[in-house]
Amino acid sequence: MTKTEKRSASVTRDDVRIVASSGNVFADLGFDQPELELAKARLSHKIAAEITTRKLTQRAAADVLGIDQPRVSLLVHGKSGQFSLEKLIEFLERLSYNVHITATRVPTEARGRVIVTA
């Protein structure tokens, strides 16, 4: 039996339910404000990447961000729910980033959403 045959033999269509992603994991998981959570996750990722790029220790990053080291640990481990959107923007400013926020009107029947590009 080949590797492919072994895999297909162990899982049948009845055993697996496949659901297409909406493009937002937080929406897929049923979060109350999925657009906000995705925005915070993207900003947190940018902050963590900058900390890595600068080769900062968590203690040094804490000094730059104006928070304590355990909060930096939360941030670099993807715990963006622990921070407000405003606080994440402040962290980016402290890391010498400009943050641009743009509001555009959507058709009246559509609901607005938050889109963050980081």
Features:
118 residues; 434 Repressor (Amino-terminal Domain); globular
Report on the architecture of this protein.
With 118 residues, this protein is an all-alpha fold. The chain has one domain: lambda repressor-like DNA-binding domains (434 Repressor (Amino-terminal Domain)), CATH 1.10.260.40. The protein has six helices and no strands. Helix 3 runs parallel beside helix 6 and helix 4 packs across helix 5. The longest helix is centred in the middle third of the chain and has 20 residues. The radius of gyration is 20 Å and the shape is globular. The termini are far apart. The N terminus is likely disordered.
Structural class computed from helices and strand pairing: mainly alpha
Task: For the record, give the distance between the C-alpha atoms at the N and C termini, rounded to a whole number.
Answer: 47 Å
Rg to the nearest angstrom?
20 Å
Shape descriptor: globular
Summarize the structure.
This protein is mainly α and 118 residues long. The protein is 49% helix and 0% strand.
Topology:
Elements: H1 3-10, H2 25-28, H3 34-53, H4 58-65, H5 69-76, H6 85-94
